[in-house]
Write a structure and sequence with these properties.
The protein is α/β, with parallel strands linked by helices. It is 25% helix and 22% strand.
Length: 370
């Protein structure tokens, strides 16, 4: 056990960077459950734009059926996953009428894996976001309404008025007002950045406004983005993604403007950077790790299978509601390469204590024990 002095803000956030490993026996029924909130299936289509409206091509961008993805998740040790297909014109109907029935089939075929309904939102005024829908009788219709109303590529011809931040803020307000609000996690937030210390389509002020508008919905970002298997891909695929800024040995995550830092997005990895600032402001803003699986590196892709390399662990009982609650509350840690499977942190001050995702109010200049 170590003692630490608290700084001027009088509040200590429990960061995973200060992990202490302990036996799990003291933690009731909850346990660390590995998952992935960013997985694509055959319902991330390509489009034939030679016809009007454009014709979706199932399997055009990602290839696997949903049950195949769930089986892979099970094989690689995941307890929960989110299907996050993205699309273009009228994709909301593909999700509602075709993908959702296959999700119900997948839940029956692979019951060992908790499977959430969701999508990767073409985010108004930003890049992409995982939209995770709570498990309810109305989940099919909730996602349809949100995608149809707020995905910036849903309408054809493209309506540029949909691609503005105010539309996203309106969407977040709508989500927050739902009886069972979803969770939104920004994906690959610095993928469009062109230099170290710069921001692209996603910027700090924007994320702060998201969090201000819907603090129980917009709860974080991908700290370690997907597409991390580029180094293992075939030479032809590598050359497609290599640039002067991201040569073959620096392309993890397929960040073509400026590379990830050891596989982590610079909005997370920079000491004193954006994530540190968010936590320092007292915001409940967390990071995740995911595969962004489209196609495996052995099959002309740049991805690992779900759970093969990246995992987001949540401290929860194994059910939909508990897992989503853990993501909201920050009872989370992330791994790449299966280096850690359990992590426990306890911080004590006087007679009070807190663990990962918790918050402890302390007096300025006082000492706490970790």
């Amino acid at each position: 056990m170590r003692a630490y002095q608290v700084g001027e803000h009088g509040r200590l956030k429990l960061l995973l960077l200060a992990m202490v490993l302990n036996p799990a026996a003291a933690f009731a029924e909850n346990r660390w459950l590995a998952g992935d909130h960013h997985i694509h299936s055959q319902f991330s289509p390509g489009y034939d734009f030679s016809v009007n409206p454009p014709r979706p091509i199932i399997g055009g961008d990602a290839v696997n059926p949903l049950p195949a993805n769930a089986s892979l998740a099970k094989k690689y040790g995941l307890s929960w996953i989110v299907g996050t297909d993205h699309g273009g014109p009228n994709h909301s109907k593909i999700n509602r009428d075709t993908a959702y029935p296959e999700l119900l089939k997948s839940r029956k075929e692979v019951p060992e894996v908790i499977q959430f309904y969701g999508m990767e939102l073409n985010t108004p005024g930003a890049d992409h976001s995982s939209l995770i829908i709570p498990y309810t009788e109305d989940e099919q219709h909730v996602l349809f309404k949100l995608e149809h109303g707020f995905d910036k590529l849903e309408v054809f011809p493209v309506d540029v008025s949909r691609d503005v931040e105010n539309n996203m803020l309106t969407g977040l307000a709508v989500m927050a007002a739902l009886p069972s609000p979803p969770v939104v996690i920004a994906n690959h937030p610095s993928r469009s950045a062109t230099a170290y210390g710069e921001y692209g389509a996603d910027d700090p002020a924007e994320f702060r406004r998201w969090n201000d508008t819907a603090p129980n919905v917009a709860v974080g970002m991908a700290g370690a983005p997907g597409h991390q298997a580029i180094a293992l891909a075939g030479e032809a695929i590598k050359k497609v993604f290599a640039t002067s800024k991201t040569p073959l040995n620096l392309s993890r995550g397929v960040y073509l403007g400026y590379p990830t830092l050891g596989g982590f997005d610079q909005m997370t990895a920079r000491v004193g950077g954006f994530w540190d600032s968010m936590l320092g402001e007292g915001r409940r803003w967390w990071i995740t790790s995911n595969s962004d699986f489209h196609r495996h590196y052995s099959d002309e892709g740049v991805d690992f299978y779900p759970g093969e390399y990246s995992k987001t662990f949540v401290w929860a009982e194994k059910n939909h509601d508990a897992i989503l609650a853990a993501l909201r509350s920050g009872q989370v840690f992330v791994t790449t390469g299966d280096l850690v499977s359990e992590a426990y942190v306890t911080i004590r001050y006087k007679k009070a204590e807190a663990s990962i995702g918790g918050e402890l109010a302390v007096d300025q200049g006082s000492t706490v024990q970790i």
